[in-house]
Design goal:
Length: 448
């Protein structure tokens, strides 16, 4: 049998976690009704958490920002408006909003027009001071930033700092469309007719060129996304286009300001995000890396005055230490970083702590429901009690942590299962092995 044994603990068959001589595991399941440990396999050993890191990010977001927090993106007229002319700069302040859209930019432009501005005599300035200049997370691999899941984190970001690519084969021709497009994003397309849709879309390194290559069958449509290399200037260009669409001319250049910009007075236009609880729910269900990083850096800014990953690490480390975790490290908010190390015990401690907070039930229900939605839609659907859990996947690592509910829907078990150093068959079957662990815990807790 695998695992530390004790009174009331579940006996885990050896076949559930094979290859322990080469595979690292950290597992803990605790009965929330009795406080007893149901299963423990090296629970204090820190391993790569992958996207289970988002559980910590979500917990800190609920605690420090609050479920009803909304990101605001304001625009300021820094100067006098005379006869429709702004005698100064128009300043757009990035505050880390993770879901700012093209429609939001048009709303901001409407507000500028409503303020009586027809011509901006100065510059279009983006105040980027909310976050520091390190846009890629520490410990990300060199190729993460080429794909949409590794889009840069910036204080001003439109459409998650990505462009959506649509490839259509129609009337014997291949057509490629992209949205949102700006003057700084360019495309290199090499798509041919083929028997199957096989597309690869990525951003060339250190370049604004998006490469679209592969094959598509006649009559079919394929979609993908790519990050942009200079998201701040991309966003500013899109806002300039929105202003022009509303008949507002900008006479000066577009400028990105890394330091705070003096604006004075109230904004002439502002857009607000959805409530944080909605953003967290979307982040956990979809395992959205971009939202996670925007949240982590915003928390750092609120607590330390600078939206940096270093500040986030310091805060996250202190929080985990307070939960009794030793020898753990959290360098980013999404779990992409290969520097991250969390243990099953640290994650279970976070899950238990959250349930004690006034927003605990909202946090729990932010996790996707197994067998029905998100990254667990096709997992554990055969279990008769509800399981809400967050997955994690990196090369060589698979994780799952969350709650098992009782028949009345109340949380009965908090669990975490982290597997690392996976290769070959062990990596191919890791997801099934983790699900078997959860089934064993459910049965051992008397929930089936």
């Amino acid at each position: 049998m695998v695992g530390e044994e004790g009174a009331g603990m579940v006996s885990l068959p050896e076949a559930t976690l094979p290859g322990r001589e080469s595979v690292s595991a950290s597992v803990l399941a605790r009965d929330l009704r009795t406080g007893e440990t149901l299963l423990a396999v090296d629970p204090n050993v820190p391993l790569l958490p992958a996207s289970n890191a988002k559980l910590v990010t979500a917990a800190r977001a609920f605690s420090e920002l609050g479920p009803n927090y909304r990101f605001e993106t304001p625009a300021f007229a820094a100067g006098e408006v005379r006869d429709g002319v702004l005698l100064g700069d128009l300043v757009l302040c990035g505050r880390g909003a993770p879901e700012l859209s093209q429609a939001d930019l048009m709303t901001l432009a409407d507000g500028v027009a409503a303020a009586g501005i027809e011509l901006i005599a100065g510059e279009l300035v983006v105040d980027a001071s909310a976050f520091d200049e390190q846009a890629l997370g520490p410990g990300w691999t060199w190729d993460d930033g080429q794909f949409d899941y590794g889009a840069k984190s910036t204080s001003l970001a439109v459409e998650r700092n990505t462009v959506d690519i649509t490839v259509v084969h129609r009337d014997g021709c291949v057509e490629v469309d992209a949205s949102p497009t700006s003057e700084i994003v360019r495309f290199d397309v090499d798509v041919e007719t083929g028997p199957e849709a096989s597309l690869e879309v990525y951003k060339k390194r250190a370049s604004e060129v998006v490469r679209v290559e592969g094959e598509i069958p006649p009559g079919e449509t394929a979609r993908a996304a790519s990050p942009v290399d200079d998201p701040m200037m991309h966003a500013a260009s899109l806002f300039r286009d929105a202003l022009e669409a509303k008949g507002i001319e900008v006479d000066g250049w577009t400028r990105i300001a890394d330091g705070p910009v003096e604006t004075g007075g109230e904004p002439c236009a502002t857009v607000s995000s959805a409530p944080l609880a909605d953003l967290v729910r979307d982040m956990l269900v979809r395992s959205d890396n971009f939202v996670a990083e925007q949240l982590a850096r915003t928390i750092a800014r609120e607590l330390a005055g600078v939206g940096s990953w270093d500040a986030w690490e310091g805060h996250a480390s202190a929080f985990l230490t307070d939960r009794g975790a030793d020898a753990v490290r959290l360098r980013d908010g999404s779990g992409l970083s290969r520097y991250n190390l969390l243990s099953a015990a640290s994650l279970v401690a976070v899950l238990e702590w959250c349930l004690e907070r006034p927003w605990g039930d909202r946090y729990r229900r932010s996790l996707p429901l197994a067998g029905e939605e998100g990254t667990v839609a096709n997992r554990l659907g055969d279990v008769s009690v509800p399981i809400r859990a967050k997955t994690g996947t990196l090369t060589g690592a698979r994780t799952l942590s969350g709650y098992v509910g009782a028949d009345d829907g109340e949380p009965a078990v908090a669990f975490s299962c982290l597997l690392s150093n996976l290769t070959g068959e062990y990596e191919a079957t890791a997801t099934d092995r983790i699900d078997d662990v959860v089934r064993t815990v459910v049965a051992g807790a008397g929930l089936e």
